[in-house]
Amino acid sequence: MGTRTTWTPVGDGEFFCPGCGGDRNYQRLSGQRRFALLGVPVLPRGATGPVVECAACRHHFGTDVLDHPTTTRFSAMLRDAVHTVALAVLAAGGTCSRASLETAAAAVRAAGFDDCTEEQLAALVEALEADTGRFTGGPCAAGLAIELHEALDPLAPHLAAPGRESILLQGARIALADGPYTPAERDALATVGAALTICSDDVTRLLAAARTPS
């Protein structure tokens, strides 16, 4: 005598499997517990699950595992975040110097936009500044803050502290490429730090550290 669980597929997709350590297909299963006599299920004992079953290792996980992005999705989120921060800092600076554009383009290419050029970034900044109400040369506008939070909020929970700090420091290096921080650049970088859930004291420390040559 005992209990057995029968599973019924109710969905599928791709997820990051903690057991395999990589992107895998999965099935979402709903279970029904039954009292078993001599191994034969006879009486229902109630529902269980749902669970997520990896198609590769067959291990079962709680459905909260689906909150973690796949490797492919995570790479895209990181790439978009660096691109958004670069544009925000360039736009906050008011003008795009060659040094700032070169630093920004290098950061964006390293994040995954292999064909990004200084000219493309300059054109994007001009278009964003022309779109009044979103990007201005003054303190961080509401539109700019929204853009940053949309790109960074979903990413922050999946990054360790060094990873979040790295994104902020990349923005700081872009701002410093053509001279000291302007008030608008500091404001934009403070918004980046807030979106990445970095406390204000750590933001101040990191921005100061970025000014010191390594």
TrEMBL record:
- Residue limits of the Co-chaperone DjlA N-terminal domain? 80-205
Question: What domain of life is recorded for the organism?
Answer: Bacteria
- SUPFAM superfamilies, per this entry? TerB-like
* Name this polypeptide is given: Tellurite resistance protein
Q: Which InterPro entries match?
A: DjlA_N, TerB-like
What is the scientific name of the source organism?
Streptomyces griseomycini
